[in-house]
Design goal:
The structure holds four protein chains of four kinds. By secondary structure, chain A is an alpha/beta fold. Chain A is built from twelve helices and 15 strands. Chain A has two domains: about 170 residues, Response regulator (Rossmann fold, 3-Layer(aba) Sandwich); about 150 residues, Response regulator (Rossmann fold, 3-Layer(aba) Sandwich). The two termini of chain C are about 25 Å apart. Classes of the chains: A alpha/beta, B mainly alpha, C mainly alpha, D alpha/beta.
Amino acid sequence: MTRRTKKNGIAISILSLFWILLVGISFAKDPIVIGHVTDLTGTSAMEGPYFSAAIELAVEEYGGEIAGREIKVIHEDGGSNPTLSVDKARKLVEKDKASVIIGPINAGAASPISGYLKRSGVPHVVMELPPPLFEKNGHVFAHQGTQSGSGYLMGKYVAEDLGYKTATVIHDDVIFAEEFLNGAIKAFEEAGGKIVQRQRTPMNTMDYGPYLSGMKKADVCLFWFVPPHSINFIKSYKEYGFEMPLVLAGLNIITNHFFEALGKDTLGITALSYNDPSIDTPEVKAWVKKWQEKFADKKEISHPAMGMTCAWYVQAKLALEAIKATGGDTSPDALKKALYNMKLDTPWGPVSFKDNGIGIGNAYILQVAEIDGKIGFKQVKKYENIVRTVE
Amino acid sequence: MVLFFINILNGISFGMILFLIAIGLSITLGVMGILNLAHGALFMIGGFVGYTLVTHGVNFWLAVLIGGVGAGLVGLIAERVFLSRLYKQFDNQVLLTLGLVYIIQNLSLWIYGGAAKSFSAPVYLKFAVAIGDYRFPAYRLTLIALGAVLLVILWLVIERTKLGSIVRAGMDDKEMAMGLGLNYPLTCSLVFAFGAFVCGLAGVLAAPIIGVVHSMPMEILLYAMIVVIVGGPGSVSGTFLAALVIGIVDSIGKAYFPDFAMFTIYIVFIGVLLIKPAGLMGKKALSG
Amino acid sequence: MKVNDSNPYFLKKIAPALICVLLFLVLPALLPGYLQSMFTKVLIFALFALSLNLIWNAHMISLGHAAYFGLACYVTAILSTQHNISNFWILLVLSIAAAIILAMIFGIIALRMSGIYFLMVTLALGQLVFFSSLALRSITSGMNGLFGVPWPELSVISIEWQKISFYYFTLLIFIVCAYLLYRVSISPFGYALRGIAEDEPKMKTLGINTWLIKYGAYIISAAFAAVAGVLFTFFSGLASPLQLSIETSTLAVLMLIIGSSSVFWGPVTGAFLVILLEYFSSVYIAERWPMVLGIVFVCSVMFLRDGISVHIIDLWRKWILREEKIACE
Amino acid sequence: MESHETEILRTENISKSFGGVKALSQVSFTVMAGEKLAVLGPNGAGKTTLINVINGLLPETEGEIYFLGDRVTKLSTHQRAGLGMSRSFQVDTLFNRLSVLDNVLMSIHGHHRTCSNVFKSFTSYGHYHETAQVALERIGLWEKQDHLVGLLSHGEKKKLEIVTSIVSEPRLLLLDEPNAGLTSEETMDVVQVIREMDSSTAVIIVAHDMEMVFSIADQIMVLNYGELISKDDPKTIMSDPKVKECYLGA
């Protein structure tokens, strides 16, 4: 009996806990809210912390307030899970009254969020999205345009500048990889190149051996995997003794993690980035320095590490500049207007939008090389002010 | 033809890993009737321990051993503290072990971050053997050999040692085994820990091929469970056979019908269930 | 208390009903919009957990039930986004039909096993459906899922859909389904299921075709899971592979274990607790949510094995009805 | 009294072996309506196995079983039960989470094949209630109808177990140690119930307790190591040397 009463105790305390929490959640707020759907768990958990930091850095540049109103950034974890992400976006808009939504990284989760935001018209500032989501004067702003865009640029470079004639293609069986490679293949074939094989590997693939032993020979191997898969793939690729040059036929995901995990195996890999910390210009160097000073004490993010971090910084800047331009008017229409008229200067060059929310700006081709004994990226080509999609 | 042979080799090497993963699950299930859904998590623990050691310059094979021990210890604790109190309560076992999976996964995300960790096999194994005009990594060949050795050892343990005899007795009749006057609960803990240990070994051995990442436990578990059911729980030979079959089917599927790669093993799985519900080498019909 | 003592009927029957009415009928109307959505989600998952509980009571421990939930999501999403069928009832019927057909096939496979092996098989079958949703890229658009599902039409009346109106619509459907499931649980069929859980050979010797009963139960519960799936699709406006994943199945399992599967309305309590817990932990400690969930799993197994509803009943009996003897289950 | 001529059960040399061990070998016998056959034998003689094989819980290794003239060897347990075969178990197999009344009702539902009904409530079958009441009153458990079975005494459980196996008015009743662990008074109640069985029904009782056996049985069958040693009326059996041997080990 006493045991049971003890259990009752536990039961009742748990219940009451819930009621306390349930009651304690109605707070009014005046500040301008920026909603950030990120990934702290799930397949992109690695990037999450960098993104939040990037936004923090950007907000700091405005002293945390615009037009006398505090800027409040609310981070929500979508766990790369479309259902959950939409839930979180819903919470940010309906409960926290967010006037802009940033993120998430995973197009699979970002797309449905755009779909949801369409109802209310709240601007959705993201990195990149598949074509169907962009409409004239829409609410979607992707400064890196469409995945197929970056893929296209890469395919063009491989065919024209590197002059490869045949290519074998392998990538994750997931929407954004699909888009990247569609673009790359389109460009490569337009330039007279020939695709000898295309392999799609399921997202739950653990062992790439079978695909590699089935891989056909060609001048070059175009690939794109999410970071965890890329590491396994590159390693196995080398194990199977392939000599074809590796080209990351889409946005660069190679980071220091790769250099640690794979060492010399990464040498010669070519990739594309619109904004990468490794780009060798004074502005970027200065920005990286600023980052390192701010987060020196947080060792896991002490270096911006990857292009996506910079992309997030740019997104935050875009949102904040828009709010600044409207002088604190956070109505969706005002913000959209401001974003369409924007020409933002970033360490990676100016960024602006076409009338359908697709970004315009510079693009850089990078290659992994050994620079005075240290493995890192070196810039091999730069494109000025290109529309970041397949025209 | 050579290509086909290469794919078979791929399948066998993957099958060996599957065998090492599944055998622990198979025995704990067959002997103790404990379904440990955290088995995949043990695999990951092994992997992370191995990663930590190797990146700090510990010898690869030593890391393999310690990784196994680490997983074994975690398994032992889980069995002593929790599972031993949930004897014959499947739903609670399931819930508990799932909970452990979530906790372990999130902990490893906390400690090691979301990036996939990977480390290389010993340098002297970092070359590819030429077969016809194809190349096959030496490390995978080593895995095949290792799997064979471990199979023999396991078989000897089960068939020749006292522990093994208790295990086999337990498989046939738990009460009878208890009646043998042996310390049955202790034996169970040991067997459980041993299964975890082997799983941990697999975790380190597989890392150079599949890497280690916080999101892997469930995928691993599924493979292991399919192998266990196809092979028939509690049967070493059955598990081994099933592991090879699944491994080979998996890589053949990936190489020849990539679009159905995800299904091939499930089709085999369901086929076996329909034809031989007890599993390839299963003694009794599966009703836990 | 005097009033209560003089009128125990009030406390036995009316009071609990009143509490439910307040909680689910009145409270949501007063809450901010976002919490209304929360309540909708609670009801949907409560229904899902209830459907699972039907077979759980026959000791058929399924970890693949998301297959039917998710299948319904996809059927609804595909038909409404790609074939412009927006009539709720048609979508409902078709989704249920799909779920039933799938359950008929899977049931035959899964029921070749029992106990722990049934669990493993259902889990594997669930994964099979999960992977299909990835593989059939042309229809399901793979990992990306389908989104932009419009609000449904009800043909009888046209509703101006908002969070609150959809909540009450969900509540209506929920009540109907819950009532049906309750009828099933008190029917000979329901008793037979509990009998099977306790002693299947005995049931056979009583002349009961236990296989058929289990098979039937499996299909019925799949059908109700499908209803929850349809509602969820309109709630979230999308269908994604995640709705077919193990996480979805285990969430339902957690709900009915925490809420206690031996009490009919247990799973509802469970759903309420789990969803709210998910919400709050995501507000305060987002990146640790899985760990919180895991700890809840472990604790509920170790300390609240028979579920929280049982204790609620006890407390009600002890503190309000002032009964001496506590008989649970 | 013509029913005495009707044959209820006939087994033709059924055998059952677990792995290597033979639990039953070549057992053949016949039971007529109204007959009360007691199965005797030392532990491990295969008595319970025999019952399990007859009602189909265990598949026989070889041999044929005929029930009411029809071959039922291939039929499943519930089908045999449907034909009118009923049994009680050695360790009581009541549904502890149901009330006394509901346990009886469950058997009646099983008998009437109404367990697949989803639309009516379990307790809404009026005439089932009457049947159950009669049965429960016979063993004096009616006033405990609402108690959970878990709370009953061992004796009461045993009686209830028997009731649940006879309410379906079976043609063949298999009783496995119906009086195990009962006081002599309780045993007499049980004996009473069995004696009052309809004369169209055959009863097979597995028992240790000689006293009870002789108070009921009009036929006795002795098993030893799975072999049928002899089957005859009580007197002849007791004078049978083979039986003495296997019992007194002399």
